[in-house]
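Morning. Coffee machine broken again, so started the prediction first thing and wrote up yesterday's gels while waiting. Chain of 283 residues, entered below exactly as on the submission form.
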Amino acid sequence: MLVDLACVHHDTLNDDARAREAAEEALAIDRVHPGALDIWVAAMNGLDLGTEALAGLEKRRSDAAGSPDEARLLPVLARAYQAANRPDDAERAWRRLRAIDPRNIAALRFYEDYHRSRGDFQTLFTTLQFLLSVVEDPTERVRVNRTMAAVAEEHLKNPERAIEAWKRVLSLETTDATAETALVDLYERTRKWHALVEFHNDRLRRLPPEAIEEKTATLFKIIEIYQDPDRLPNADNVLATYARIVEVSPTHKEALETLARGYQDRERWPDLLKVLQKKVFVT
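Came back before lunch.
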């Protein structure tokens, strides 16, 4: 209640003096209540008492050192240092918080920006891996994986890690076109043709039954791989993939004609007969 009252005074009534009083009453009950501390610092800054606010936070931190309250107070102190343009002090506060609580998401997000700003991309990637093991929100997990993919590919020059990150994006957002495009490009550049075929097959499994055009286009991409002498040339697989096209689109003229020629060349008469019957139906 007191924290809510302090928020009303600060955010709605623009009365920092009363906001400070209400926040201090709340802090008399809970000395490191994060919400009360945030409002108290904001009110103190509004009263041009930012230096006194930092001194007060430092005193509370000293009093709480070694207790569970220290971890609750440190994010407020660290953000206050950042706002006061004291980056070294802010980093020390976040570092202390990570020593107490290695899984603290706020601290991990700070270090995400911290390592990026210093160009330490290997440590940044490690931090993102740790953050990924902690966050549960699907949107945030997608963001972290996108960032990991970009760091791995652009800075670490590690396509394998980029591929794994984009695959995790697709496991969360199954229709993410950016992830699909990135994976195809990475598979092609690293010449991972079997993985590319499996990627297309997995996409086929994810498409709804009515997506006939998309399924057919995807199957033709698999055919291109099996037809290319520099990738995975295999005439039997080409023929089998055309058969899959007919399963999806029974009246597909090109697929039926290709199957007829292929089955005739291989003397697969029962299969040829089935295709000819379908061609009669089409014509």
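DSSP finds 16 helices and no strands in the chain. Going to sketch it on the whiteboard this afternoon.
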